[in-house]
Amino acid sequence: MAYSLPNGSTVDLASSYSAPVAITSITNANPAVVNATAHGFTQGDIVQITSGWERLNNRSFVVGTVTIDTFQLIGSQNDTTDTTLFPVGSSSGSAKTAETFTQISQITGVEFSGGEQAFLDVQFLSSATQVNIPTVKSAITMTLTVADDPAAGFLETVQKYDQDLSINTLRMNLVNGDSILYPAIITFSPTPNVTINELMTNTMTMSVQNQPTRYTR
After folding, report:
1. Which of 5-14, 77-86, 139-148 has the lowest mean pLDDT?
2. Quick check: 163 and 152 in contact, CB under 8 A?
3. Paired residues of 83 in beta bridges
4. What gap in Å lies between CA 185 and CA 170, rounded to an integer?
5. Which of 4, 2, 1 is nearest to 173 (CA)?
6. C-alpha 153: how far from its chain's center?
């Protein structure tokens, strides 16, 4: 059994990317292997992909073994052997690597909401009890509270993403050495929260667009 406090953890945001390359297909395998001609990626890169497979679409992964025209996706929930969930012939898309990350500094609070499984309660005419049928999981939102600092180094990147509402890679670096990659739409409130005798802060909202990928040390 292992546990730790979050104190000392950091959060950073991909602030530049390589040019996207075309994905022709992804194998039904564990781990999945991406076919992308002359992709130029190297082992250890963080890659954000789009794919016709919804369970992989917009997610970020660490690149594993590479050849000139293929690269492996390392990380949780990348077992694509189930052809019902990952139909053959519908996996094409694109991939780009996160070239640089910018740390989101002076974070005073992190909150998560959503991610819960929703159920439909059903009772049949002949039954005396209801049954729960799973439907979807609710959307995940991460809210960061940061000190109000107009000179903060991350502001330019965050304000750009707030304007274009693009999906970008957010990385949480836990103090125990683990890291978690989130594909998110980032919005930012420039108006500070003002309360007497309390630190002025701003609110940053990360609307997570697919499942996060966690890497253990």
Report:
1. 77-86
2. no
3. none
4. 9
5. 4
6. 22
Q: Is 92 exposed, middle or buried (0-12, 13-18, 19+ CB in 10 A)?
A: middle
One DSSP character per residue, 196-209 reads TTS--EEEEEEEE-
pLDDT at 88 over 80: yes
Say which amino acid occupies 38: A
pTM of the model: 0.92
In order of 16, 18, 149, 175, 202, the CA distances from 185 in angstroms are 15, 19, 22, 25, 17
- Domains of the chain plus CATH, in order, are 15-99 (2.40.30.180), 103-215 (2.40.30)
47 contacts: CB under 8 Å, gap ≥ 6: 41, 60, 61, 62, 63, 71, 73, 95, 96, 97, 98
